Records
---
Amino acid sequence: MTHGSPSLHRLAPAKVNLALHVVGQRADGYHLLESLVAFTRFGDRVSLMPAEATSLSATGPFASEVPLDSSNLILRAHDLLASAFPSQKLEPVLLSLEKNLPIASGIGGGSSDAAAASILLARHWGLQLTESDLAPLLLPLGADVPMCVAARPLIARGTGEELEYVRLPRLPMVLVNPGVPLATPPVFRALQKKDNAPLPPLSAFITTADVIGWLSETRNDLEAPAASLVPAINDVLAELRSESAGIARMSGSGATCFGIFLSDEEAERAATTIAERHPSWFVAATSTLASDEIVP
Ligand code: ATP
């Protein structure tokens, strides 16, 4: 172990698709999306320490479900960055992942881990990369990885790589997953209508109620196809609605759903009630990072 270099840490926030419209499909099969996305202060935690050899370890509630071999998106990000800087001497590192986000659950855990690890590696290795250099470099790891670099509220368009940052306030939120992993491809296969209406024009978002008002004119087009595969998604949404969420919707391709509440207290109360009723579900009260907040 090399001494003297401090370890680096970064939150890998959950990515929440507040709205997700499927607006078309390219000839190569890729779906065209329009999505308003925010990131929560609840997430995984990635750490990096200098070491004799590069390795990855995981702790946390979902550690046993995540692969630790070269298929892990953190190691894939490491290898991608290393291959982008072949002439640089890049020290080996010990990477640690605190896995708090459920796997294959529509809140971008792996994508966010890859983005967080890349930021730490670029800093540790002294690579002169800004966020806007790093984001496109990481696209080969997945369409959702670039947006996780800045982890600020945004609208993603195209296949997810065209990013427009938008102003959003902090939103009190509850995340709920019924404990059923759901891979993305079968959800898109179950989606019948691919040319849905685009997102309505954005309005000025000052309060949580402004955001809820706009969201009520929007959808997640993957919610019905996902619920046809995992009916428990409908139970989760019903629970969030019965706890008076201002909006209750599925994120990404599911199965995690979110509720937006008017206050942190309401969100915490709802989370406690739902967790008591459904001890096997994953439930977390959190809030989104506002546009002007920096990822801790
Ligand atoms: P998205 O919202 O982008 O669809 P997701 O939440 O559905 O993401 P992930 O949790 O990122 O999906 O997992 C997708 C797959 O990636 C899983 O099958 C998992 O085995 C693999 N994977 C690789 N690295 C990671 C990681 N660091 N964390 C979670 N899953 C990972």
---
Amino acid sequence: MTRFTIAIVGRPNVGKSTLFNRLAGKQLAIVEDTPGVTRDWREAAGQLGPLRFRLIDTAGYEDSYDDSLPARMRQQTERAIEEADLTLMVVDARAGLTPLDETFARLLRKGSRPVVLVANKCEGRAGEPGLLEAYALGLGDPIPFSAQHGIGLSDLYDAIVEHMPEEEPEDEEQPQTEPGLTVTGEDGEEVLDGDLLPDDAPRIIQMAIVGRPNAGKSTLVNRLLGVERMLTGPEAGITRDAIATDWEYEGRPVRLVDTAGMRRKARIDEKLEQLSVQDTLRSIRYAHVVVLMLDAELGMDKQDLTIARMVEEEGRALVIAFNKWDAVADKETALADLRDRLETSLSQVKGVPVVTLSALKGRNLDRLMAAVFQVYDTWNRRISTAQLNRWLAGLLEMHPPPLVAGRRLKLRYMTQIKTRPPTFAIWASRPEELPGSYQRYLVNGLRQDFDMPGVPVRVYLRKGR
Ligand code: GDP
Ligand code: GDP
């Protein structure tokens, strides 16, 4: 049977096998050597969402080697590319580009078949510089991806489907598994990817509630879970360090990520007076959306600001829950003070939603959850390149970048390189000379004009284009 064939190529250790295994489903088969033709590759029936294809992988057979591409490896790669309708070229975004990546890219640019560039190991921030470097390979926009964590599957889907013929023969019944649906990561940076679900299907939002001791976190959790108890946990599935509780709020699945600290407290029923920064950081890393709980009678202090900044640093979406609102006498002043504090000390996440509530009395919990869902959607937001460049042109017209040494800096082109959180790249003539104030102006303008309050917005400047 002929089938759309996808080859995975790239230098060793970039994650080809990991990607192969993620796309291969269960029907893994190693191709036997045909006499006379040695084909050193693995082959499997691949699957990505509803797409079915034949998958070949050149990894795992090469011996270790340095920066030169041995003739045998080159031959295998060339043959795989020839046999494939589409090639996935994988690079390691954490390691950055190497001369060997360039060699592979050159090989692929010579061919006439479509290539999709996959910047692997893009979970977390460590991959962002490498992701930007990958644009230089001349193979189109790289897809930010994590084979290990299952991030970027829907972008990969979009890129592949563009090159596939409309009617792929569908000969077997659809397997029930959704690749990329449940993903467990070692370091927990991303434990689940709902990316591949159809748009109307529920996506699991991972939510953490953090804050100083006595802010009312446990009270809130009990309230939330008490209302609609859809527990399948607590389930120690994520890792030994965090416990997740799955429940539903108005039909939307939510995974509440608990910290070791909260568990400890629940178990031995003693108050931990110290805020454990380690525990807090851990639950922030497991979360998509972080609810920072404040005691409204006390307002926002330095520790709270530290937590809020950690949320920003880790690229998570933030909602502030101003709790114990029932006990606050002068509500107006309390809120004004908080706004003031946010304005002066937390400009990194402008417009972060603040919800006043009473966990004890169960008031305003619906508004809290609405805010959580809203920032989650913003966090996943994708803005088209056309829209961004129209926006950039307008902005440049209104406020051109300053003159440096008598010359005007040019900002030429802009695109969104990833979501979760929204991250953008702008190509400029002399990016290193653009003043920090103008960069902040860009970030704030983006956040405001595209309505992205409460989530970190990142802009990288690159030279060229
Ligand atoms: P190959 O030689 O290209 O087939 O690479 P492998 O699939 O064997 O992966 C090389 C190493 O990178 C292994 O230790 C993997 O666990 C690791 N790896 C693969 N994908 C990812 C990823 O998305 N993120 C991170 N951090 N590591 C990954
Ligand atoms: P945690 O340490 O953040 O988990 O805080 P707890 O949930 O244990 O709450 C600390 C104290 O604040 C308890 O005595 C709660 O009853 C009280 N508390 C929690 N939420 C509210 C609220 O909305 N209003 C008032 N008045 N008290 C609250």
